[in-house]
Amino acid sequence: MPDSSLPSIVQTQTLPNEFAPVETWIDGLSNGEATILGFILVTVASFIVWLFSRKKDIAIPPINIHPHITVKIPKAELPTVQVVPETPNPKICLDRLPTVKGKFFGREAELKLLNEAWKGDGTRIIQFIAPGGTGKTKLLRHWLDHTNDIDALIAWSFYSQGSSEDKQISASPFFNHAFEKLGSTRSLSSFTTEEAKGGYLTELLRQQRCVLVLDGLEPLQHAGKGMRGELKDRAIRQLLRSLAGQNIGLCVITTRIAARPCIATLVIPTATSPAPIKICRKSTTSPNRAACGCI
Description:
It is a single chain. By secondary structure, the protein is α/β, with parallel strands linked by helices. The protein has a domain at 92-294: Rossmann fold (3-Layer(aba) Sandwich), CATH 3.40.50. The protein is 29% helix and 16% strand. The protein is built from seven helices and ten strands. The protein has helices at 20-27, 31-53, 108-119, 136-145, 172-181, 194-205, 234-245; strands spanning 63-66, 69-71, 92-95, 125-129, 152-157, 210-215, 250-255, 265-267, 277-282, 290-294. The strands form two sheets. It has an eight-stranded mixed beta sheet, sandwiched between helices. Strands 1-2 form a two-stranded antiparallel ribbon. Helix 6 (194-205) runs parallel beside helix 7 (234-245). The longest helix is centred in the first third of the chain and has 23 residues, at 31-53. It starts with 19 loop residues before the first helix and ends with a strand.
């Protein structure tokens, strides 16, 4: 029989349960009431987590380590992003050049020629001549995208019409769109001659400093030996002749065949051909005459 006078090895003490009334209340809830209570508690907990997870710009007060020393904790600064300015779009823009793929590199001589002509060295028309796939259109696309002082651009491509000698080619869509972009409502049927149509477009172009691009002109040219390079379209022929005489802007032509008569020619060099350059500048003896010479 154990001796009750010896101290017990295990001491047991019942702690007061402060949440006993709450437990009793919860035990008395029905299943529906318990479900509603659980939903409320989960919603409140989610709101508290969301509230503390928000990123706020909290100003951290300075820490006073010494009566005469104040340490300020700087705010975390976001990294700066450098914005590259885009080339502004021309105020008058008709851009129908085909889409080109691949990276552009080289062609420093051709880009220099275009830049100097656009700055006003007296050049009125430049003609780039090279076989298909050489990069004539890509050259113009690169130059246009990186020249930011072009207020008026009329760029048209004739490549889609093909270059077959017996195929009927029309420049009417070009004239229609050019008239519209330059603010004219005159219809093509109102002209009595094709030459009058070309002359009228010249007058519209002369009202502002404009870049005119005629890309892939060979569908409008004769390819045979007898008339090789001659323009079939009389309106385009008159347009180029008029611009060669007087043009405050710049006309750029790309073609596989040199347009006759030669106005201004740059043969893009290939692996098998040299690069003679003919350029048309303002005549020093007569302001209305174009002087062509080899350089």
